[in-house]
């Protein structure tokens, strides 16, 4: 029997990735095509698997923390926050107010840096080279702040159980204020290049549409969920780490397409800048680390610590058996869950649209494979 055809053309199966630069990592997408039209898609992951969760069972609570920085290597600060909050809850450790404030400041700087890298690569995938260069200009300034405070630019190993590893160095606050004073004009500059650009609109509007109900059914979180009109942000819905003391808005979209998800992240950068402004204005004095025992041995129990990472809900399910080693640490990476919607989003679109849709999900294969 002959193979089924559509419009007298035989269906074609091709692999996009895992070497393709626009898959943003070692992601393999098996596409079934009718010409340029996508009929079906399946994701193949696991090329980057390192067994981080299993390694955690053989490291102390302190020594396994650097591994989590390296899962989502674009948002290492957020990864550290989710884990230490969970251990602190199990241990009932009180974190000093100065450390709480600095944590929020640096996590929001990391959100901006992550969104800048997303915008740079997303725009480059679609053909906008200038935005790529502009975004890296601002991201470089944030990485300089990270290097000044943490001693590293990317895998920062930012926080410690109970607080911080060191206080803000001299001149840090001035450099941070200088950045947030200049940043609004930079975001406006990006939008002048893209938001009303007819090529950008043609490549993003009506592409990868998903309703709020469907987004919830797929378990989406972060900008992909809020882009579909669902105002769910853990910083507001389930405040953690002191976020209930800050004023900021949760942007939501109307159409649930690639264009809306772009606008969501642009506004999130502005809101993160707003939060950083508040942390600098209210930064208290005092110690940077609470009372922490020399050996971390939480009592027998379990706790789920979920935070709003740049890509969505980042969670750590920690199980303690009373020893100095975690009995189990299960990571809930946001893009691992978000990626399952790719098949639904790309059906019926063109191959070129697959690139735009992968970009709008902002996947990081390090946390997907773990």
N-to-C SSE series?
EEEEEHHHHHEEHHHHHHEEEHHHH
The dominant shape is globular
Q: How many domain regions?
A: 1
Question: How many distinct beta strands?
Answer: 10
Give the termini separation: 43 Å
Q: Oligomerization state of this entry?
A: single chain
Q: For the largest sheet, list the strands in their spatial order.
A: 3-4-5
Provide the low-confidence segments as ranges: none
Computed CA radius of gyration, to the nearest angstrom = 21 Å
Question: Helix fraction?
Answer: 40-55%
Task: Explain the layout of strands and helices.
Layout: E1 5-6, E2 9-10, E3 12-16, E4 28-34, E5 37-44, H1 52-56, H2 65-69, H3 76-91, H4 97-126, H5 129-150, E6 159-160, E7 163-164, H6 172-194, H7 198-204, H8 212-218, H9 223-226, H10 234-237, H11 258-282, E8 301-309, E9 312-320, E10 328-332, H12 334-338, H13 342-346, H14 351-361, H15 365-369
Antiparallel strand pairs: 1-2, 3-4, 4-5, 6-7, 8-9, 9-10
Compose a concise summary of this entry.
This protein is of the alpha+beta class. It contains 15 helices and ten strands. The chain has a single domain (50-337, 351-369), classed as Cytochrome-c3 Hydrogenase, chain B.
Describe the protein in words:
- The chain is an alpha+beta fold and 370 residues long.
- The chain has a single domain (50-337, 351-369), classed as Cytochrome-c3 Hydrogenase, chain B, CATH 1.10.645.
- Helix content is 47%, strand content 14%.
- It has 15 helices and ten strands.
- The strands form four sheets. The protein has a three-stranded antiparallel sheet. A three-stranded antiparallel sheet has the order 8-9-10.
- α4 (97-126) packs antiparallel against α14 and α6 (172-194) runs antiparallel to α11 (258-282).
- The model has no long low-confidence stretch (mean pLDDT 89).
């Amino acid at each position: 029997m002959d193979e089924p055809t559509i419009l007298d053309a035989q269906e074609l199966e091709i692999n996009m990735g895992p070497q393709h630069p626009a898959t943003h990592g070692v992601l393999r997408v098996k596409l079934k095509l009718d010409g340029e039209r996508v009929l079906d898609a399946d994701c193949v992951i696991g090329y980057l698997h390192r067994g981080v969760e299993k390694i955690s069972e053989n490291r102390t609570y302190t020594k396994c923390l650097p591994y989590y920085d390296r899962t989502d290597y674009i948002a290492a600060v957020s990864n550290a926050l989710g884990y230490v909050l969970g251990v602190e809850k199990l241990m009932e450790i009180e974190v000093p107010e100065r450390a709480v404030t600095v944590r929020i400041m640096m996590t929001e700087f990391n959100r901006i840096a992550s969104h800048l890298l997303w915008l740079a690569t997303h725009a480059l995938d679609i053909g906008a080279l200038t935005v790529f260069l502009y975004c890296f200009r601002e991201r470089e300034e944030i990485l300089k702040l990270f290097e000044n405070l943490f001693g590293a630019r990317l895998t920062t190993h930012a926080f410690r159980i109970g607080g911080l590893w060191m206080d803000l160095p001299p001149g840090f606050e001035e450099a941070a204020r200088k950045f947030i004073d200049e940043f609004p004009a930079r975001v406006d500059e990006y939008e002048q290049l893209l938001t009303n650009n007819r090529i950008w609109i043609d490549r993003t509007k009506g592409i990868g549409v998903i309703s709020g109900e469907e987004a919830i059914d797929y378990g989406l979180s972060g900008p992909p969920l809020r882009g579909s009109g669902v105002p769910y942000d853990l910083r507001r819905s389930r405040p953690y780490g002191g976020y209930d003391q800050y004023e900021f808005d949760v942007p939501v979209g109307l159409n649930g397409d690639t264009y809306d998800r772009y606008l969501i992240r642009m506004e999130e950068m502005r809101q993160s800048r707003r939060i950083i402004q508040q942390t600098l204005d209210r930064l208290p004095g005092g110690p940077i680390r609470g009372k922490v025992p020399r050996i971390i041995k939480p009592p027998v129990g379990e706790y789920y610590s979920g935070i709003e990472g740049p890509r969505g809900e980042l969670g750590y399910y920690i199980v303690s058996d009373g020893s100095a080693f975690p009995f189990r640490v299960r990571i809930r990476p946001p893009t691992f869950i978000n990626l399952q919607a790719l098949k639904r989003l790309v059906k019926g679109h063109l191959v070129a649209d697959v690139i735009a849709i992968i970009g709008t999900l902002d996947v990081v294969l390090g946390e997907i494979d773990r």
